[in-house]
Amino acid sequence: MPPETEPPKTLKITASEPPKRKPPQRINLRLPLTEEVLKAQKPQIDTLLRLLRKKKKIVVIAGAGISVRAGIPDFRSSGGLFSSLRNDMKLKTSGKELFDASVYKDDQLTSSFHEMVRNLHSMTTQATPTLFHHLLATLATQGRLLRLYSQNVDCIDTQLEPLKTTVPLGNKGPWPRTIQLHGGLEKMVCSKCGWLAEFEASLFRGSEPPDCSECLEMDCVRGIAGKRALGVGKLRPRIVLYNEFNPDAEAIGAVTKADLKSRPDCLIVVGTSLKVPGVRRIVREMCGVVQDYRGGMTVWINEDAPPVGRDFEGVFDLIVSGDCEKVAKMASLPRWD
């Protein structure tokens, strides 16, 4: 986002959706993180820092933007994965098609998908957590991060001990601090028996998904016992593609329901364009609960503006236009470790 030439108006009054009872009018603050503007935006900066340092039940919903400084490209920007994959893989359409369940219906797409996940896995294993990842870990260590809902499959966040998760996600609590909304590249799973193992990138080459070793062993045992074979499943990365069922869907629903009931006092939406309908719905519901809480604040941190539309009118109290790394640096919270 190009720097603005002059500080924008800092206060903007907008009406929220009419609920059952008339809510107090909310003030939307805008805070572009440019050097010129920062000098004139002390009230907004103080508000942001106060939230990060004082709020007790913070929910963070994060997207690819928090991993860019770690060397992981985002998805939808001009230099993001969707754009680069189209050129690198010589695809006819957007690189988004490599994240669609239909990749397994076409040999060429399957081969390209396997190459992509190998490369992406290589990048993620070499990446180190950013300042913002460490800020989240600090909030968790202090007991003030109620939940991190991560759309990222890079698993950089869950490398940090305070942000560890569990795979698969249980339908009943207690739940881990981090909820992976779209799975993660650290695991692979059998499409038939559900066997789960650490991801082995070298297995995913060419157009044929690798056989499941657990299924092969089971068929061998059954053969020795004179029983009929049950068939061998195929391994795949445990990430959720477009147009397929999320195996953790029921558990994610249970977590969000519990978190909404616990009445968080702050919501931070960071590094995401909110294009995925399910995530967009979680954000909208969480914003409503937080804003209904006395002193509750909702924050948008991104290079791009928040989503438009009637369902997102007035849902963010503080809009921070810029790099989340700058936010982490300004917060100056002690390192969790």
Radius of gyration: 22 Å
Q: What's the pLDDT, averaged over the residues? A: 88
* Low-confidence region ranges: 1-21
What is the assembly state of the chains in this entry?
single chain
Largest sheet: 8 strands, mixed
The strand order across the widest sheet is 1-2-11-10-9-3-4-5
Looking at the overall shape, the CATH architecture of the largest domain is 3-Layer(aba) Sandwich
Succession of helices and strands: EEHHEHHHEEEEHEHEHEEH
Q: Approximately how much beta-strand content do the residues carry?
A: 15-25%
Domain module count: 2
Q: Which CATH first-tier class of the largest domain would you pick?
A: Alpha Beta
Structural class assignment: alpha/beta
Overall spatial form: globular
Alpha-carbon distance between the termini? Answer: 33 Å
How many DSSP helices? 9
The number of E-state strands comes to 11
Looking at CATH, which topology of the largest domain would you report? Answer: Rossmann fold
Explain how this protein is built.
The protein has 337 residues and is of the alpha/beta class. It has two domains: 22-71 and 129-182 and 248-336, Rossmann fold, CATH 3.40.50.1220; 73-126 and 183-239, SIR2/SIRT2 'Small Domain' (2-Layer Sandwich), CATH 3.30.1600.10. It is 31% helix and 17% strand. The protein is built from nine helices and eleven strands. The longest helix is centred in the middle third of the chain and has 20 residues, at 107-126. The model is unreliable at 1-21 (pLDDT under 50).
Characteristic terms for this protein:
single chain, 337 residues, alpha/beta, Rossmann fold, SIR2/SIRT2 'Small Domain', 2 domains, eight-stranded mixed β-sheet, three-stranded antiparallel β-sheet, 11 strands, globular, disordered N terminus
